[in-house]
Design goal:
Keywords: Coiled coil, Membrane, Transmembrane, Transmembrane helix. By secondary structure, the chain is mainly α. Helices cover about 75% and strands about 0% of the residues. The protein contains 23 helices and two strands. Strands 1-2 form a two-stranded antiparallel ribbon. Strand 1 and strand 2 form a beta hairpin. Helix 2 packs antiparallel against helix 14 and helix 6 packs across helix 15. The protein is globular.
Length: about 675
């Protein structure tokens, strides 16, 4: 089994990252480089979280071997503990051979740092650029990132000059590398505590509120009102952009040098707008014959960027509106079925997507009723209590993990108890659950937050390239300090535990933080205590109240604005529900009419067609017989009628009688 667990987790984490990226991204429409870069960033971050428990168990086994080799017989160690015997020191099932983990961590860490600080910021500017060529997009990305890269180079250059001039500093390459890692981890830890303080409270509270049907329905109405406003704004913005595109398309004709750029813009427009512009476009006119003020290439690049953004936003709001309608209809069905005497779940509307037959067989209406109306609320309450317990343990451990005598961090207590018995399965499970819960609190906040319309992770393939790349940057910057914080909570970091033991392979890659003692002994230890203040602020919804005061509507039960938006959303849902009911009734009537009269209509239609064929054949036979006799005279009569119509004078409406019409008189003659 040596190394098998590592290989299994590498494959599993890859498919996990691919599944999440498929849920949020769009493999068909987005650029392949964006998909690959985001997948690599997510994959490396998830991989660190899943592999770190194996590193902990392997380190505990290596410590056991060192203790056995140093003291073969059982005796008291330097720290007052008993040295382990050879019988207790057995190899774990997930043991990773020496030399593999340091290379693995070095490759994973430096690849993620290259992604987050160099490649992904460049690709963000490249993806948002409206250039019409690869060279133009690269040029735009370099210009936008010049200040970004220049700031880091200026700080790093000033630091090198200070070190070179000051004779008291004698820094080597390894120490400079450690300082760079410490700077990156400090920035990540600053953001990590903010996101962790929000997630530790909001995740248990969201599951507790998930058991309240009335709360979920009211919040859905609130979201519907806000989304309708955003949807109308997106449609209006798209109309304005399409009007500009139409004007540009009409001014730049087919033989203009910039016509290729206009065609590229038109391809990004929705299909209905493309057809409308194609009908109104006249390309038979040369651009040199009309003295117009033609737009420049720079203005077309800006217009191209606006088209990409507006089309993406319009498509996203349309999809989210349909998803929100389904959620609202389902919650209303749950509220109606709670008082059902038959205990069978009845849907108002049938699902538009075909359901799996296996799920239909097991998830019957009776099972659905018991789950939705009875079991699910209690399940969410129990889960919320478990998550709240984990949150309390995390907050306590964050405030006390620096204490080594006595050990106050509960996670460190659990790991040390398991280390005495060398129960590696328990150690790996405890480490995995701890770091997994921390990751859920941090990563879920990354998926939930929304920075206006610039950063927003929307499910059902509606996330734009800029937001995907930005999420990859955040994950790569948050994961290393998250892992260091986890090792500090469990006292597996020698800097925290102050024990002269073998460090984990991950800690050895990070280097010794003694080079920067004010960071190792100050910021890394005392800054995580701020999570208590952030948890209190999140519990009392101080951030939500501040945003509401600033004019950003947030869901608050004691606000008049919230009540008005709930009433507005309820009316919108009721209107959409009536609309869908009318559509389904019309479809049912057409289906019943077709089932009842479809065969009769087909037989009648066949009989009518057969009779028409007989009559047409009979008339053709009668008209073909005297055709040769009257062919010349009929042709002459037709020519005379055409000549008379051409020579006719205009109609005189002042004539006294109808016989004064020259057309009729000529026709009579």
């Amino acid at each position: 089994m040596s190394g098998a667990a590592l290989g299994i987790e590498i494959v599993f984490v890859f498919f996990l990252a691919l599944f999440l990226l498929h849920r949020y991204g769009d493999f068909k429409k987005q650029h392949r480089l964006v998909i690959v870069a985001t997948l690599l960033a997510w994959y490396l971050c998830f991989l660190i979280v899943f592999i770190l428990p194996l590193d902990v168990s392997t380190t505990i086994y290596n410590r056991c071997k060192l203790a056995v080799n140093s003291s073969p017989a059982e005796s008291n160690g330097s720290d007052g503990t008993l040295a382990p015997s050879k019988q207790k020191c057995f190899k774990p099932w997930s043991y990773i051979p020496d030399g593999i983990m340091p290379i693995f961590w070095r490759v994973v860490y430096w690849t993620s740092q290259f992604l987050t600080w160099i490649l992904l910021p460049f690709m963000q500017s490249y993806a948002r650029s409206g250039g019409f060529s690869i060279t133009g997009k690269i040029k735009t990305a370099l210009i936008e990132n010049a200040i970004y890269y220049g700031t880091y180079l200026l700080i790093f250059g000033a630091f090198l000059i200070y070190v070179a001039v000051n004779p008291n500093f004698n820094l080597q390459w390894n120490q400079l590398q450690t300082i760079g890692i410490a700077a990156a981890n400090t920035w990540g830890l600053f953001l990590l505590v903010l996101l962790l303080g929000y997630g530790l409270v909001e995740i248990p509270r969201s599951h507790w509120n998930g058991a309240k049907r009335g709360y979920l329905l009211m919040k859905t109405y609130f979201k519907a009102a806000k989304l309708m406003t955003e949807k109308a704004d997106a449609e209006e913005n798209l109309e304005d952009i399409m009007e500009e595109v139409r004007k540009v398309s009409e001014s730049i004709k087919y033989n203009h040098p910039l016509r290729k750029c206009v065609d590229t813009i038109l391809k990004k427009c929705p299909t209905e707008y493309q057809e409308r512009m194609g009908r109104n476009m006249d390309d038979y006119e040369d651009f040199d014959e009309r003295q117009n003020n033609y737009p420049s290439e720079k203005s077309l690049v800006k217009l191209h960027k606006q088209v990409i953004y507006s089309v993406q936003r319009h498509r996203r709001t349309q999809v989210q509106w349909q998803i929100l309608l389904e959620q609202a209809f389902y919650l209303e069905d749950v509220a109606k079925n709670e008082t059902s005497a038959t205990r069978r779940f009845v849907h108002t509307f049938h699902s538009q997507e075909p359901e799996n037959k296996i799920i239909q067989y097991f998830y019957t209406p009776t099972v659905e009723w018991y789950w939705e109306c009875l079991l699910r609320p209690w399940f969410y309450r129990v889960l919320a209590v478990v998550l709240a317990t984990f949150s309390v343990i995390v907050v306590w451990s964050e405030c006390t993990f620096f204490s080594t005598e006595p050990v106050l961090s509960l996670f460190a207590v659990f790991i040390q108890l398991a280390e005495k018995t060398y129960n590696y399965i328990y150690i790996e499970m405890a480490c995995f659950l701890t770091i997994f819960f921390l990751s859920i609190c941090v990563y879920s906040t990354v998926f939930r937050i929304r920075v206006f319309n610039y950063y927003y992770l929307a499910s059902h393939h509606q996330t734009d390239a800029y937001s995907l790349l930005f999420s990859g940057m955040l994950f790569c910057r948050l994961t290393p300090p998250l892992c260091l914080n986890f090792l500090g909570l469990t006292h597996m970091d020698a800097t925290i535990s102050h024990r002269k033991t073998q460090p984990t392979a991950y800690t050895s890659i990070m280097g010794s933080m003694k080079v920067l003692s004010f960071i190792a002994d100050g910021f890394y230890i005392y800054y995580p205590m701020l999570v208590v203040i952030l948890c209190i602020a999140t519990y009392f919804s101080l951030g939500t109240r501040c945003l509401n005061l600033l004019g950003f509507q947030q869901f608050m039960g004691d606000s008049e604005m919230t009540s008005d938006l709930i009433d507005e959303g309820k009316e919108l849902i009721r209107r959409e529900k009536r609309k869908r009911q009318r559509q389904e009734e019309g479809e049912n009537r057409r289906r019943e009419w077709k089932e009842r009269y479809g065969n009769r209509d087909d037989s009648t239609r066949n009989r009518v067609v057969h009779t028409d064929q007989k009559e047409s054949s009979f008339s053709e036979a009668n008209t073909n017989r005297p055709l040769s006799k009257y062919t010349r005279s009929n042709g002459r009569t037709e020519r005379d009628r055409i000549e008379l119509l051409q020579d006719a004078e205009p109609l005189d409406f002042n004539a006294e009688s109808i016989s004064d019409d020259p057309l009729e008189s000529d026709a009579g003659r």
